[in-house]
Amino acid sequence: MTAVARIRRTWERVRNVPGLGRDAVALAVLVALGLACTGYIFSQYDIKPPWQSGRVVFAAEFEKTPGVRPESRNEVRIAGVTVGKIESAEPLPNGNARLVMSLDPGHTVYSNAKAVLSTKAPLNVMFVSLDPGGPPGTPLPANGTIPVSQTKRVIQPSELLSKLDERTRDALQTLLDEADTALANAPAQLPDGLRATDATVNAFRPVVEQLQTRRGTISKLVTSLSQISTAAGHDDGRLADLVASLQQTLSVLSQRDTELSGTLGQIPGFSDDLTHAMGSVRDLTGELNPTLDGLRSASTTLPPALSRVTGMVDRAGPLVAAAKPVVSEAKPVVADLRPLAGDVHTAFRQLAPVTGYLPSATARIVPWMGDLAAFVYQTSSAFSLADANGGLGRANLTLSLDNPTGGLGPADGGPVGGGK
Where along the chain is composition biased (Gly residues) (predicted)? Predict the structure, then answer.
């Protein structure tokens, strides 16, 4: 069976089997999409086909190349534009490193070119920034090398820390650990801490100024001692006395250091006391301001008031002088009224029991005030049993003569007076 016959037979099968043509078309579309995606991915990986030629290959020598991994496609840039990549990296016998780079066709690298190894992220994603140079430099030959004097590299943080001594590294590590712990609650506590630090630094300012003055004085002392030593020359005796004096001076300075340490140790407590005192003064100021405002307002209204009082006193003077004879004549009258005042007091004391019944009497009379008014208005006589409309019984008044209260209170447990 020939190939044409196989294709024809397959085509007939696709046409005759229900759904097979649709599946075949879907499979072809998927294969086409897969090939397109594969081609796009390979193009982004900057894969150069074997038949492509004209790429510029050269090398550069660096002191060190930390973080360079050629398999990660480390870039080569000119003026920030990616034009090539790092092909390989290898160490040299002199301790340096050699990077082999390739550029796209059309670029020329000269003998005065400069290269800088940098990173585009904190995680050492390295790239080479290339200045290709130009005349009067000459083009580099194929596989030429840029010398180490024309290259620079990024400095790693570990290299900076390695220059420190062991105590400094330990202190820095402790500082980082404490900073991590301290910054955990930074949004809530850091502002107050910074304000307290600012106050502490301001409190330390006089001490620092004194230390600076002392440093200048010590510098002048050392300079003077140097001059004295130079002037002394080879005079061993004078030099020995000078050294002894210097030792005594340094001992005094050492004692002053102890006193200074004690003073610095007292500063935190003094700062706390000063902070509390300033807070109290602030509260006092807040209370004093309204008082001063009130005094200011009173000071504007008090002089006119005093002026008016002065005028009133001036006008009251003649009145007091005129009333003086009246007061003199009234003294005998007041003296004659004193016995009467005693009798009135006795009368009021005797009326006290009767006044106790007045609320009850008032409570009983008030409901009959309307009827009593009608009785008064419609009756010509309080004791008559007839009016303009004829005879009619109006009231029955009962008086209990054996009740000393006049019917206002209970006499023998019976009802209180009354009327119908």
Answer: 406-420
